[in-house]
Design brief:
The protein is an alpha+beta fold. The chain has 2 domains: about 140 residues, Electron Transport, Fmn-binding Protein, Chain A (Pnp Oxidase, Chain A), CATH 2.30.110; about 40 residues, no CATH class. It is about 25% helix and about 35% strand. It has 5 helices and 11 strands. Strands 3, 4, 5, 6, 7, 8, 9, 10 and 11 form a 9-stranded antiparallel beta sheet that branches. A two-stranded antiparallel sheet has the order 1-2. Helix 4 packs across helix 5. It is elongated, with a radius of gyration of 20 Å. Bound molecules: flavin mononucleotide. Flavin mononucleotide binds next to strand 4, strand 6 and helix 2. The site of flavin mononucleotide has 15 residues, from strand 4, strand 6 and helix 2.
């Protein structure tokens, strides 16, 4: 059956009450977080091994963007959380300019999600909770790796790791204060669904007055 799109405009300017039928006539949720959760789950069900892998774009005060992959560790209506080194290149750029972009691509379902928003550090408690949920070996790597800094060679890094491992108190390691999470609070989501003849679907959600305006963009 042909997919169809129904866009029912809500009263007034605000389209947040819009009802949209997307691929397979499944309604696009009015809440973009719910929509994200559905697509995220679909990617996993279709065999994507790392549906939480996302591209993070940052841009410091020099106006030059940079990008890299990070892993989504938590998502709910308060935002998208990932963990990293606060003194890394991305950490420095976020300190200069908190506005970032996240991009997910799930080839199995031909879907892309783009998110734009502001990143702020999560609480020390939240960072501790995640840090101590990780295997000891990964915690040790976070402790000894000066992420994004130039190092002389790999051997020195491995030696540092080994020395820490051999210390009797290695199991009691604290989370380094320079390592923790960021929460990205979105102000914009775009859901892209690949379709026939390159007539793809694009659903844009923009934050307005505490709600979401949903619009359809040309592919
Ligand atoms: C699939 C994938 C997931 C990654 N996840 C993370 C992550 O969650 N946190 C992190 O700090 N680096 C992660 N990395 C490494 C980053 O891409 C990057 O190399 C590192 O964070 C340093 O980036 P920066 O120098 O721009 O700060 C991941 C790399 C890949 C390929």
């Amino acid at each position: 059956m042909q997919n169809r799109i129904i866009h029912k405009k809500a009263k007034g300017k605000n389209h947040s009450g819009a009802v949209v039928c997307g691929p397979g006539n499944k309604p696009v949720a009015e809440d973009p977080f719910l929509q994200f959760t559905r697509w995220f789950a679909d990617a996993g069900k279709k065999g994507n091994k790392e549906p939480g892998a996302m591209h993070l774009s940052t841009c410091g005060k020099n106006g030059r963007p940079s990008g890299r992959m990070v892993l989504l560790k938590n998502v709910d209506s308060s935002g998208f959380v990932f963990f990293t080194n606060y003194e890394s290149r991305k950490g420095k750029q976020i300190a200069e300019n908190g506005f970032v972009a996240l991009t997910f691509f799930w080839p199995e379902t031909e879907r892309q999600v783009r998110i734009e928003g502001k990143a702020t550090k999560v609480t020390a408690r939240e960072s501790d909770k995640y840090f101590f949920s990780r295997p000891l070996e990964s915690r040790m790597s976070a402790c000894i790796s000066p992420q994004s800094k130039v190092i002389s060679d790999r051997e020195t890094l491995e030696k540092k790791w080994q020395q820490l491992m051999e210390r009797s108190d290695s199991k009691g390691l604290k989370r380094p204060s320079g390592w923790g999470g960021y929460r990205v609070v979105p102000s914009r989501f775009e859901f892209w669904q690949g379709r026939e003849h390159r007539l793809h679907d694009r659903y844009l959600f923009r934050k307005k007055r505490g709600g979401w305006i949903m619009e359809i963009l040309a592919p």
